[in-house]
Specification:
The complex is a heterodimer of chains A (264) and B (285).
Chain A lengths: L1 H5 L6 E12 L2 E13 L4 E5 L6 H9 L6 E6 L2 E2 L7 E4 L11 H9 L9 H9 L15 H13 L5 E5 L7 H18 L2 E6 L2 H7 L2 E6 L4 E7 L11 H14 L12
Parallel strand pairs in A: 3-8, 3-9, 6-7, 7-8
Antiparallel strand pairs in A: 1-2, 1-4, 4-5, 9-10
Helix pairs in contact in A: 3-4, 3-5, 4-5, 7-8
Chain B lengths: L1 H17 L2 H36 L11 H14 L1 H33 L1 H14 L8 H8 L3 H25 L3 H9 L4 H38 L5 H10 L3 H29 L10
Classes of the chains: A alpha/beta (264), B mainly alpha (285).
């Protein structure tokens, strides 16, 4: 472990033996049990699991919104103790401030006065996510996909070392979701940010990740880790892609349960 | 309702026979707007008709309830002499001063209490003990303390407006959504910026409606205060008219109170819409 820590680059993320227990009512519920994961700088890790498997909790621990009961999370060589701008986060709901326009939301994240939006960094991020024409729009005037683009721009404006994506496209329709998956890869090409994606969509996990971690529920543990050794852009209909998908699917359901429609 | 449909049918028939193309479209919009206005005013119009009917049929003695025509005459007379304007201006000035003071203190304290549980613990019992006391119950004390000068009226108005404003602002601040608090934490927003750009804007819709509520209650309070201790203002006008046995002036004064109250609310609603333009407000079905 020490050799990893010694040579850690700023964007390396290292999760070591993380445990987390919640108290619901009077019962102690183990959400995460002995999770150990590494993501290299510039890498893309997908975490896939059923709802309630603790995958979002893991991401929230990395973000600093929750505290692990045991274990450590290192970003570069520094342990994470709380939230910070070195980590960007995109939630399933866009969480844009409704009283600020798109560019004001981005400018606010930068730390400036939200009314001073002329900053080149803000404009560049708004353009990066393809919202130049909607920079002055309020969140309620945006479609779900556009709002999520704005949320990504906001999360990226501080040049975080890691971008944490908590089911970012879960609330979008199927077509927009595919479009946004391609967008996030394009943005990654430009920004070269380390990314961690939590999703319940197996196909999305494979399409985006260099590595896919499959988690199982109660307690949340890592069941399996798969390398996705496919060239980009990835075709969802390629044999290897489908084989990976089927293999992850088998972690959740027996082969016979697989609905026919899913095998398109 | 029936009369309004008859009128619109007639207007439609009248309109379609002459207008064509754009003009007919414009007429159509004007017609729709007119119909909405008529619909909006239908209940007051119906009340007016009923009132006129009772006086025509002599159901109520004119000393107790003068006819609409008599009230209108009294109203026009009050306008002509400038007496009404003078009294309304006086009452309005008091309301605006008292409400401004209540808003400044109420919003300030409300934000403070909303943000700090310590301050809430220190002030909650006091606020909750004073809040149920109607402003009118303070009038005797107000006269003892401040005499019948301006200060006693301002005091009553302040009390009336202050409590609804402060209570609503507190609850508005406390309604700050947790998801935005998390976003602010991730972005490491300093506390002052967090309050100014996250908490206060989020509570602004509630703060604005608390101002409307406060202003409405202040307007009721000024009239109540003037009824008892004043030599000017709409409340005084009504009281004075009662002593002179002029029910028509009393009614003209009362209707003025209603109209001015409505006008103030419309003005504040406009302001509210401009201030919280980012919010999609439920408009009803």
């Amino acid at each position: 472990m020490s050799s990893v820590r010694g040579g850690a680059r700023a964007g390396d993320l290292s999760i070591e033996s993380v445990h987390k227990t919640f108290t619901i009512g009077r019962r102690a519920v183990s959400a995460l049990c002995d999770i150990t994961l590494q993501v290299e700088e510039g890498g893309f890790l997908s975490i896939v699991g059923a709802s309630g498997c603790g995958k979002s909790t893991l991401l929230r621990i990395v973000a600093g919104l929750e505290r692990a009961d045991r274990g450590t999370v290192l970003l570069g060589s520094q342990p994470i103790r709380g939230p910070g701008r070195d980590r960007g986060m995109v939630f399933q709901d866009h969480r844009l401030f409704p009283w600020l326009t798109v560019e004001q939301n981005v400018a606010f994240a930068l730390g400036g006065d939200p009314s001073r939006v002329s900053s080149a960094v803000v404009q560049q991020r708004v353009e990066l996510v393809g919202l130049a024409a909607f920079r002055g729009a309020y969140p309620h005037q945006l479609s779900g996909g556009m709002a999520q683009r704005a949320a990504i721009a906001r999360a990226l404006v501080n040049r975080p070392r890691v971008l944490l994506l908590d089911e970012p496209f879960g609330a979008l329709d199927a077509l927009t979701r595919i479009q946004m998956q391609q967008e996030i890869l394009r943005i990654r090409e430009v920004e070269r940010t380390t990314m961690v994606l939590v999703t319940h969509d197996i196909e999305e996990a494979i399409f985006l990740g260099d590595r896919v971690v499959v988690m199982s529920s109660s307690p949340g543990t890592i069941r399996r880790t798969l390398e996705v050794d496919l060239p980009r852009p990835r075709s969802r209909s390629r044999h290897e892609f489908m084989r990976l998908r089927r293999s992850i699917y088998a972690e959740f359901f027996t082969e016979g349960d697989e609905p026919f429609a899913y095998a398109i | 309702m029936l009369s309004s449909t008859i009128v619109t049918r007639w207007l439609q028939a009248f309109g379609s026979s002459r207008a064509e193309g754009n003009a007919s479209k414009r007429a159509h919009f004007a017609l729709a707007a007119g119909r909405r206005a008529l619909h909006y005013a239908s209940l007051p119009i119906a009340a007016l008709c009923l009132w006129q009917l009772t006086s025509v049929l002599d159901l109520v003695p004119a000393v107790a309830m003068p006819s609409p025509a008599q009230v209108a005459r009294a109203f026009l007379e009050l306008v002509r002499t400038g007496e009404l304007l003078r009294h309304v201006a006086m009452s309005l000035a008091r309301v605006l001063e008292g409400t401004a003071a209540a808003a400044a203190l109420g919003i300030g304290l409300g934000i403070g209490v909303g943000l700090s549980r310590r301050l809430e613990r220190a002030t909650d019992l006091m606020l909750e003990l004073l809040r149920p006391i109607p402003p009118i119950a303070w009038i005797p004390l107000a006269i003892l303390w401040f005499g019948i000068g301006e200060l006693s009226k301002l005091f009553i108005i302040f009390l009336g407006a202050f409590f609804p404003i402060v209570m609503n602002v507190i609850s508005g601040i406390r309604q700050t959504e947790h998801k935005f608090v998390e976003v602010a934490r991730i972005l490491e927003v300093p506390r002052a910026r967090f309050i100014r750009h996250v908490i206060v804007p989020g509570a602004l819709p509630v703060i604005m409606s608390s101002l409307r509520l406060g202003l409405g209650i202040a307007w009721m309070c000024v009239v109540a205060a003037e009824l008892i201790a004043a030599s000017s203002g709409v409340g005084y006008l009504i009281m004075d008219a009662r002593q002179l046995s002029r029910p028509d002036v009393v009614l003209a004064g009362m209707i003025t109170i209603g109209v001015v109250g409505k006008a103030m609310d419309v003005a504040l609603k406009r302001l509210e819409r401009r201030v919280v333009e980012w919010k999609v407000i439920y408009q009803g079905e």
